[in-house]
Design goal:
heterodimer; A: alpha/beta; Transcription Regulator spoIIAA; five-stranded mixed β-sheet; 5 helices; globular; disordered C terminus; B: alpha+beta; Beta-Lactamase; 4 domains; six-stranded antiparallel β-sheet; five-stranded antiparallel β-sheet; rod-shaped; Anti-sigma_ant (chain A); STAS_dom (chain A); Anti-sigma factor antagonist (chain A)
Chain lengths: 130, 830
């Protein structure tokens, strides 16, 4: 199986000072989740509050990958900040819907859409959808 | 050196005296002397033929030298007899008797009397010199110094001169004269070499004879054109003896300048009857102090002697000349001098019958070191078997030289054991040998231990750094060599006696005796490299862990010659290994623990959810459950199912999946499963139950998340009301159709503090089958969950008769590729 052949690649660009765009390429699973988590933790450490996760090149994501997204979501919510998922593939979108993560973590079709959602977010701790 | 029993020509001062014997056959007489008895000896001493042979050769060599001296004396006696025959007009026998009687009357030896007779007859320069010597001797006797010594000294000087003359005249050519002069007269004066130059009519000089120079040097100087100023030319042009303290100071070129750059030189015109025939050049190895008149006169007498031979000297004519040394041998000598290894140039030596008897050592190069430590000059010029009698022995060195000479096929061998006799003591050395033929000569090169020594010094450094003690044990001589490190390692002073390998056991811990025994057997009996680790017990009471490594060194005959090797103090390493072993044990223990934990998890799973549960008794409803743990024990995790009839008559159906694996996941699973059972008793709907369960999960330590699907089946209405928390929806199998229920909204458990869950209700009919499962059943990376599920369901169509069979087949044909544990709950209505 193409796990070894497709190592995870995470490309980080700063859209704004506090907004990091992480473009993920490869499988997000139990083998790569830790690396993905390190990238996110690093950005948190550098003071980013908003995380835009471009998952358009992630063909598969399992619960490990999803848990990382949930974890950064919980961290960002305390800052306060936000997590946005951008252009997930059908399979990943399916997992997000299955697990209900897409209820909590907004899914955008583009970076601009995500940025406008960041702008729209009120300052202060986010009130979870209940 | 060349001598003969009889002068071929009478002395210059005594013409007409009859030659007594025909010229002797070519080749030194001593080789004959060696070959004869030595050959006999071979058969006589079977026990140690070569050793005895060598000893005999040594003895015979000495006898031959004595005989030679005697022969020279006999030549003088014969000459005196010849004079008496002429003067007294008697026969040779009477002349001999007369000589003996006169000698007895004069109270001198017959030899000394013979010299007197010759002197009286000759009345030449030699006589004058002899008289002067005698006079000087008498004066010193008068002065009161030991009369016998003085007389004997004068007498022997006279004998010496006449012997030189006799030798010179007996010699067939000027070359032999040079040899005789050097050996008989000039070496006693401290000279090292002599050259006799023949003067050409045009003023050129031709080297008519020389001794003490290398053959190659003599060949280079065979001709000096006119008008080239050399030392010899000075003697020719000045017509008087030229005495130079040091050749270097003159700045003049001459033969042998590189060999004796600073030595003294004398160039004497050699003339008879007012005509100069050539020049006698004498070479001293060291600067020459002004000499006493006696020496000057003696040397002038020698120059006159040379003149007699030069008088009849016919310069060789160019191409017609037969060189004394073959040109290829000359080249070979130059080549040999350029080598950094000891090299010998050998030329064949034929016996009287023309058979190859031996090889003469024509040349020894500058790097030559005799294995027996003899000076180069002793070996150079000697016969090979005479210099190295043991060459005929086991090493077959001589046979190899013979074969190379015969066939021209080079011979190369490593580690030949060379033995040389020095004062009857055999000294052995291991050497690499190369023998090759060039023209008529054979080049023999060997390399003794030099390279080994260099490597050894390198090794010394390595050994010091590695705390390695090196040793070498010669099994023939019993000699043991240790380096300093080894003494330190053994805790013994450098001056103490090394411990032989065979006594190793007595220096080691008794328990290591077997290991050492095995080591020695491998090394000495099987002759293979061996090593052993043992505890060395030092005299100071310290025990060191030591490893010994050794290898046998065999000679070409596969005899065990030497054992060499090294001891290494591995105490530090040893304790590291001990520590490592302990760590390894600990690791194994940890591993064992991990396995036990995995097993514990599994047992926990089984205790809570038996793989096959006792059937649930509900009217018109089959309920079946399956749990399949992950194949890898460590991956056994947090899947759970539940199927229980609640007090209100409803049946709680549930499947859940805790993220992660191992005992923590299993513990969380237990918490959630029991919590759900407890909450269900309240009679709340599935959405509410999951909402509460989310709160439970959210407060579990370690950020646990879980997915679950939860349904309440009402047997009376045949309805299932259900909700899901991030989990795959149930699948409904109805007839030929199979599909998942709609994806109602529901966040996975534990991710957020509060979540709400949509509910849905499905009306079931008889024969309907409803499946709840965890993603271990269908999860594949290369396709969507729906595809995988559809594929799975199609493989189990038509639905088997029993629900249990159905579930078993689902597990069997599952094409999941993620080794995950799997839970499956099914109900069948009817």
């Amino acid at each position: 199986m193409p796990i070894a052949q497709n190592p995870l690649s995470v490309e980080v660009t700063l859209e704004r000072e506090e907004v990091a765009l992480l473009k993920v390429t490869g499988y997000l699973d139990v083998d790569t989740a830790t690396e993905f988590q390190h990238h996110l933790a690093n950005q948190l450490h550098h003071g980013r509050r908003h995380f835009l996760l471009d998952l358009s090149e992630v063909p598969f994501m399992d619960s490990s990958g999803m848990n990382i997204i949930l974890r950064v979501y919980q961290e960002a919510r305390e800052l306060p900040g936000s997590v946005h998922i951008i252009s997930p593939t059908a399979a990943v979108r399916r997992v997000l819907d299955l697990t209900g993560v897409s209820i909590t973590v907004p899914v955008s079709e583009s970076v601009d859409e995500a940025l406008s959602r960041v702008d729209a977010q009120p300052e202060g701790p986010r009130i979870p959808e209940a | 050196m060349s001598t003969s029993e009889q002068p071929r020509e009478p002395a210059g001062g005594a013409p007409g005296e009859a030659p007594a014997a025909p010229p002797r056959p070519s080749g030194p007489p001593r080789s004959c002397a060696v070959d004869g008895p030595a050959a006999d000896l071979r058969g006589m001493t079977p026990l140690s033929p070569v050793g005895r042979l060598a000893a005999t050769v040594d003895r015979l060599s000495r006898e031959v030298r004595a005989a030679q001296a005697e022969a020279e004396g006999r030549a003088l006696i014969e000459l005196a007899k010849g004079i008496l025959v002429a003067r007294l007009g008697c026969g040779p026998a009477q002349a001999a008797r007369q000589l003996a009687e006169l000698a007895e009357q004069s109270r001198v030896t017959p030899l000394e009397f013979a010299v007197d007779v010759i002197n009286q007859a000759a009345r030449d320069r030699v006589s004058e010199v002899t008289d002067a010597f005698l006079a000087a001797a008498v004066r010193s006797t008068d002065a009161g110094d030991g009369a016998d010594a003085g007389e004997a000294g004068a007498g022997s000087a006279a004998v010496r001169l006449r012997a030189a003359e006799s030798g010179a005249l007996a010699a067939g050519d000027t070359q032999a004269v040079a040899d005789a002069l050097l050996e008989q007269a000039l070496r006693p004066l401290g000279a090292a070499a002599v050259a006799i130059w023949a003067a050409g009519y045009d003023g050129s000089l031709t080297l008519a004879g020389s001794a003490g120079f290398s053959a190659a040097e003599a060949t280079r100087w065979r001709y000096v054109p006119p008008d080239v100023t050399t030392v010899a030319r000075c003697g020719l042009t000045e017509r008087t003896g030229q005495w130079f303290t040091s050749l270097g100071e003159t700045g003049l070129p001459s033969v042998g300048r590189h060999q004796y750059p600073d030595g003294g030189r004398v160039a004497l015109p050699a003339g008879t009857g007012g005509r100069i025939h050539g020049v006698l050049e004498i070479v001293w190895p060291v600067p020459l102090a002004p000499q006493p008149p006696q020496v000057v006169r003696q040397v002038e007498a020698l120059a006159e002697l040379c003149a007699h031979t030069l008088e009849s000297y016919v310069p060789p004519h160019g191409a017609g000349q037969e060189p004394r040394v073959m040109p290829d041998a000359v080249e070979l000598m130059d080549l040999a001098d350029g080598l950094y290894d000891p090299a010998l140039v050998l030329v064949p030596h034929l016996d009287a019958a023309g058979h190859l008897a031996d090889f003469r050592i024509q040349h020894v190069n500058k790097s030559f070191l005799d294995p027996a430590g003899r000076p180069r000059a002793v070996v150079g010029g000697a016969l090979l078997l005479e210099a190295y009698p043991m060459a005929a022995g086991d090493s077959e060195l001589f046979q190899n030289v013979e074969r190379v000479y015969a066939t021209g096929e080079p011979f190369r061998a490593r580690r030949i054991n060379l033995t040389a006799l020095v004062d009857q003591v055999p000294l052995s050395a291991v050497a690499d040998i190369s023998i090759s033929r060039h023209g008529n000569a054979v080049l023999l090169i060997w390399r003794i231990e030099d390279e080994t020594a260099r490597l050894a010094s390198l090794l010394q450094h390595a050994q010091r750094l590695g705390r390695i003690g090196g040793f070498e044990e010669n099994l023939l001589t019993g000699e043991i060599t240790w380096n300093g490190q080894l003494f330190d390692l053994y805790g013994r002073p450098q001056t103490s006696t090394p411990v032989p390998l065979e006594e190793l056991t007595s220096h080691a811990h008794p328990d290591d005796a077997v290991a050492i025994g095995r080591f020695l057997r491998t090394l000495l009996h099987h002759r293979r490299p061996a090593s052993a680790a043992f505890r060395l017990q030092r005299p100071d009471g310290v025990t060191r862990h030591v490893r010994v490594v050794a290898e046998p060194v065999l000679d070409t005959d596969d005899r065990l010659l030497v054992v060499r090797g090294a001891y290494q103090d591995i105490s530090a390493q040893h304790w590291t290994e001990v520590a490592l072993a302990a760590t390894r044990d600990q690791l194994a223990h940890t591993e064992q623990q991990a396995i036990e934990r995995a097993r514990l998890t599994l047992q926990l799973q089984h205790a809570i959810m038996p793989p096959a549960q006792a059937p649930l008794k509900v009217p018109d409803l089959q309920v079946a459950v399956r749990y399949r743990p992950a194949e890898t024990e460590q991956l056994v995790g947090g899947d759970w199912y539940d199927a229980v009839r609640l007090p209100n008559g409803l049946v709680l159906l549930c499947v859940g999946d805790i993220s992660g694996h191992g005992i923590e996941a299993a513990t969380s699973m237990v918490v959630l499963r029991n919590a759900l059972r407890g909450l269900a008793v309240t009679g709340a709907g599935p959405g509410q139950l999951l909402s509460w369960l989310n709160i439970v999960a959210h407060h579990l330590t370690g950020g646990v998340t879980a997915t679950a699907v939860c349904g309440l089946y009402d047997p009376a209405r045949r309805t299932l009301r259900w909700a899901r928390a991030g989990h795959l929806p149930p699948v409904l199998v109805r007839g030929a159709q199979a599909g998942p229920l709609p994806l109602v909204k529901g966040m996975l458990l534990g991710a957020v503090a509060e979540a709400s869950y949509e509910e849905d209700e499905v009306q079931l009919a008889a024969e309907d089958t409803l499946l709840m499962y965890t993603d271990g059943l269908i999860e594949r990376r290369d396709r969507s969950v729906e595809e995988a599920l559809a594929q799975l369901l199609s493989t189990v169509r038509p639905a088997p008769d029993s629900l249990d069979q159905h579930l078993d087949r689902l597990l069997t044909y599952s094409r999941s590729d993620t080794d995950d544990d799997t839970c499956l709950v099914g109900i069948r209505v009817g």
